Amino acid sequence: MKKAIQLTINGQPVEASVSPNQTLVQFLRDDMGLTGTKHGCGLGDCGACTVLLDGKAVNSCLVLAVQADGCQILTIEGLAENGKLHPLQQAFVDKGAIQCGFCTPGMILSAKALLDEKPNPTELEIRTAISGNLCRCTGYQKIVEAIGEAAEVIRFREES
Amino acid sequence: MLLPKFDYHEPATLEEALRLLSEMGGNARIIAGGTDLLVRMKLKVEKPSQLISLRKIPGFDAIIRRENHGVTIGPAVTAAELSKNELILDRFTPIALAAGRLGAPVVRNRATIGGNLVNARPAADLPPACMVLDTKLKLKSATTEREIEVGEFFRGPGETTIEPNELLVSIFVETPAPWTGGAYIKLGARKTLEISMVNVAVLLTLQDQEGIIVDAKIALGAVAPTPVRAFAAEEYLIGRQPSTEVFHEAGAIGVGMCEPITDHRGSMEYRCLMIETLTSRALNQAYQNALAWKP
To answer: Measured between CB atoms, which of A56, A64, A132 is closest to B192?
Structure first.
């Protein structure tokens, strides 16, 4: 039997009807058309499906859509403002931290959760924050640099 | 990877959850964080026809300080919360450290202490940490209520003394004595998203800052079908003056308590060597933490 859920996705209130066995990543991609969130291993190992649930980075393949009832979801589509890339997205572009791009949405959202909590992270904190996100192009070095640069940009923007 | 079909229930009270659980019995599974259960369901290891969610039950995600006495941890408290909570870090250190090593940040934000205990995987992070502290689990069914020491809870890989109609409703941990320090060390091939090859939790209590060891608890994970206490090593330590040599000897005694297996994560011989090394290392760390104890 389908269940009715109400949640907020990228700032927009959404009402929907979902099957209990539908995961959050399936709901976001198949029902909401938000295909920026990638479906990788499906077992919580790769982090490609990372979204922010009430501000915390989670594997959306291991969350049921019904469990997101009443929650705030942020996906990669919700990061840019007025057509302008978020500093994290811009830093990933500028630093060449994207190769195939499959891990990128998850990497950026794990990094966003980190910077929201710690605006001035150490390199170790950055590496720990993305330790549940696998990149098989092995672009980790550039990714870590991009997150560090984005942190600086955000801090500078908030100071000025 | 798709989930099999099931019915989903979200009781708003504990009473309702217990009633559902007693009505559905073996067909139902409890879902909290889902980081273990949903994986097992996707792999078709488990096929419950009913899932009962804990997310609406009041108080299940709370950490409550019991003045001068201990702490009550709700079963749905996440590993991330435990790893950052100042009270847990300060007084119940092995639990905070073990929670901070469970999975990866994306897993820790969902995985719960209740799930980690009830799933009873031999290599789980939180069971050894709870076993070195004085931890009691409260189990409730629609008609019964009982309390059990965490050391008597585990029966084998994935097996505990919990009945199908029972729910773990709270975890009480007694505050350790003054001059106590704790540590937790996990060994895997990589730092995150790893199933331990060996894990060690220890708690060491000194008479005072320069005194002898008056109490010692050592629990080892991934070295036997359930996490085990190294009682002989603990007995050896009690009454002795702490030193690197004493800690090393305790590690050597600890190996005798274990029956590690050889698998793709590591050989029996390697695990035995690591038990010895990590136990003595963890004791050293716990000793440093005990010296830094503050009222």
So the answer is: A132
Q: Compute φ and ψ for B201, nearest 5 degrees.
A: -115, 140
Give the Cα separation of B242 and B92 in Å (integer).
21
Cβ neighbour number for residue A157 with a 10 Å cutoff:
9
Residue A126 belongs to domain spanning: 87-159
B31-48 residue pLDDT tens: 999 999 999 999 999 999
Of how many residues is chain A composed?
160
pTM of the predicted model over 0.90 = yes
Q: What is the pLDDT of residue B252?
A: 93
Residue B198 banded pLDDT, cuts 50, 70, 90? confident
**B26, exposed or middle or buried, with CB in 10 Å at 0-12, 13-18, 19+?**
exposed
Q: B56 and chain A: CB distance < 8 Å anywhere?
A: no
Q: What is the distance between the alpha carbons of residues A52 and A69, in angstroms, rounded to a whole number?
A: 14
Considering only the beta carbons, identify the residue of A23, A44, A59 that sits closest to B3: A23
Tokens of B10: 């979200």
Question: Tokens at residue A31, please?
Answer: 């029902």
Say if residue B192's pLDDT is above 90: no
Give the integer Cα–Cα distance in Å for B76 and B111.
Answer: 8
CATH architecture of B63-174: 2-Layer Sandwich (3.30)
Q: Between chains, do A44 and B6 touch, taking CB under 8 Å as contact?
A: no
Q: Which of B52, B56, B58, B62 is nearest to B19 (CA)?
A: B52
ipTM summary value: 0.95
The CATH code belonging to domain B7-52 is 3.30.43.10
Q: Is B90 on the interface with A (CB under 8 A)?
A: no
